[in-house]
Amino acid sequence: MKEQRHVDEPSPGTPTAAQVAQVHLVANEVFGVVGTKWALPVMEAIGTDTRRFGELHRKVTGISHRLLTATLRQLERNGVVDRTLHPTVPPRTDYRLTPAGLELHQTINGFCRWSRRHLDDVLASRRRFEQT
């Protein structure tokens, strides 16, 4: 005999409204961090390597120590960057992209490729829009 479900119950494997809302909330928070002025240059500077703080500071032109620290902490909080503290004197801290961070980095690179390919189309569309 087939099990009956109420109409309001989600199908097995179908996310509930609360789960969908949580995904949207977390995604918006992560994109808010990744969309800041410094997050993308920091992620690009890390790339597929492990980098020390000083290396990152030299590679990301114009960022202050304070902003680099804050950016790295936010990326770490959101699972994009891993931080490894080595108990040496002086202390050494290494940063690398997590597997999720590497995937995000590839996704962002795809978006940048799209932007380069369609730059003329976007600019033409903006000109047409402004003329109306």
Keywords:
3 strands, Arc Repressor Mutant, subunit A, 132 residues, 6 helices, mainly alpha, 3-stranded antiparallel beta sheet
Describe this structure in words.
- The longest helix has 19 residues, at about 100-115.
- The mean pLDDT is about 90.
- The chain has six helices and three strands.
- It has a single domain, classed as Orthogonal Bundle (Arc Repressor Mutant, subunit A).
- The chain has helices at about 15-35, 40-45, 55-60, 65-75, 100-115, 120-130; strands at about 50, 80-85, 90-95.
- The chain is globular and about 65 Å long.
- The chain is mainly alpha-helical and about 130 residues long.
Summarize it.
59% of the residues lie in helices and 11% in strands. It has six helices and three strands, in the order H-H-E-H-H-E-E-H-H. A hairpin with a 5-residue loop joins strand 2 and strand 3 (92-97).
